[in-house]
Amino acid sequence: MVYNFKINISLVLASFCWIFTFSQSDDSITYANIETGIANYLVEIGYFKEIKESRTNSNKIRLSGFFNEITDKDSIPNGVYKFSTSSSHGIYLFVVVEENNYKILNLYDKKELFRTLNEILNFSIKRDYCKEVVIEYIESALHWHFLMQNYGRSDCSYSFDNKTTSSLSLEELKNKLVNHLKSENVIGDENFHILMLDKIDEFNLTISLNPLNENDAFKNLNKGYYRFTATDNMKYAVSYYLLLNDNDYELVLLKEGKNFNQELFTLLHFGIDQKFCSEIIKYVISNYLKQELPLKSCLTDLKKRLP
User: Fold this and answer.
1) Do 126 and 11 belong to one domain?
2) What pTM value is reported for the model?
3) 3-state secondary structure of 165
4) Do 44 and 112 belong to one domain?
5) Are 145 and 169 members of one domain?
6) Is there a contact between 109 and 13 (Cβ–Cβ < 8 Å)?
7) Is residue 79 packed enough to be buried (19+ CB in 10 Å), middle (13-18) or exposed (0-12)?
8) How far, rounded to the nearest angstrom, does the alpha carbon of residue 149 sit from its chain's CA centroid?
């Protein structure tokens, strides 16, 4: 028997907000070890009523390598694995194997998603994985999270065809930004600086705020993700993400990878809380990762050597 996943999981996950870690003594982690651990975990969170449900054809558990199939089930190598069930209300998990431990990482609610992304990032950086591999992990985690949350359907209140306008005019936004930049000593006399605003999730939309065209002063922008640059055009440029909501904004200062996890989670938190379409959130996050993820690009085909 399979319970209504949407209702049941949301009720029980609040009590299970930690990451499940399993250890072996000196033996290698096997496929059977992980399969049993996952079955027990799914009973713990209420997805299954009892373990035997995981053995039915309709609930068949599938664990596989992220890039390649598991070839030796008696010795699972270090790496990131993906798990799913075959039921109509399926669940998706990540499993990270490291030495004699493995961790089961949930993707269902926002809090668990952020924990999972943090674990994946820390593990990948420690293992010296390259940028494209980590981006694929994160993009898949977001895709499965939104799939389980039914984003893009009833939960989607924002799209290219259904835009929501902020109450801030361009002139109000400019004044707020100038005051903030002055308080942070990013700019002095604003007359010597150029302020450029780019809408990330729309093409060919760039707005000059300094100088601001007087015909644009009372226009209102659509809510969403913007990239904002303050520069004197000669000595320096300081870049931010500007997250524009109904009547205010939040700036995310880009620190060239020095505060990457916090930047990523702030961008993601904003999109989820604003109930933007999943495709827009994934598009913005993907572009952010390609530009800001502090890892080297893959010089070899690392995916062939990873599970």
Assistant:
1) yes
2) 0.83
3) strand
4) yes
5) no
6) yes
7) buried
8) 14
